[in-house]
Amino acid sequence: MTQTFVGDTRVVGTWIKAGPCVVTQIKKEAKDGYLAIQLGFGSKRIKNVTLPLKGHLRGVIKDKYAPRFLREIRINEEMSDLKVGNLIGVSDIFAKGDRVNVTGISKGKGFAGVVKRWHFAGGPKTHGQSDRQRAAGAIGQGTSPGRVHKGKKMAGRMGSAKIKVKNLVVLEVSPEEKLLISGPVPGSLGTLVTIEKVSSGTLSKFMVEGRKVISEVVEEVVETGKNPEGEEQSKVGKASEKVE
Questions:
Q1: Strand ranges (E), 178-243
Q2: Domain that includes residue 151, residue range
Q3: pTM
Q4: Could you give the CA distance from residue 156 to residue 21 in angstroms, rounded to a whole number?
Q5: Which of 41, 48, 84, 185 is most buried, by CB atoms within 10 Å?
Q6: How many CB atoms lie within 10 A of CB 24?
Q7: Would you call 170 exposed, middle or buried from its count of C-beta atoms within 10 A (0-12, 13-18, 19+)?
Q8: What three-state secondary structure class fits 96?
Q9: 189 and 135 in one domain?
């Protein structure tokens, strides 16, 4: 993660290596019932690739290297002219201001108790409860229904789940096939994430919020003759002129 500035607003973001991706397979509606392409990303030596997969990737293996990751995505009629072996760069899909969803596998935390996993309050610290501070407590009723309901929040494996973070914004598109996306994304360093473009847009949302706060302060100074700290307008006049 890092930070950047959009106008005068500081925005945190995450750099993601997002390309180039190579087309490894094409599915057509006449044969498969839907339009889709399979994309390959990364690289690994073909000695570590199984024979069936080598046959599947025979059109994209170069210099004894094959794609490491394979993912299938749906396409529309406009992209139906793609062929196996075509490269798709980051700038071909994304631009500054685009709104995206990022899906990945979250960090695994191992076996965790109910306090860490579900934020339980725990038991009392007094009245003889010396060993119940982080216990789950009762998990069900007595005779009726006489069992533990499905979905009961209990201790267990935490993390390592599929997470989708929605409505992030592309802050920058790098020539090195990298994307700077606002906010954090799921997973640890080196893991695979899927970036889905939702809509096109601009970076104005980050700048409008800051200007709105400044304009409200200036209006208050003009109306009352004093700034929020009570100083006279003459002392803050130069500051308001700079803002304008």
A1: 178-182, 193-199
A2: 109-159
A3: 0.74
A4: 37
A5: 185
A6: 24
A7: buried
A8: coil
A9: no
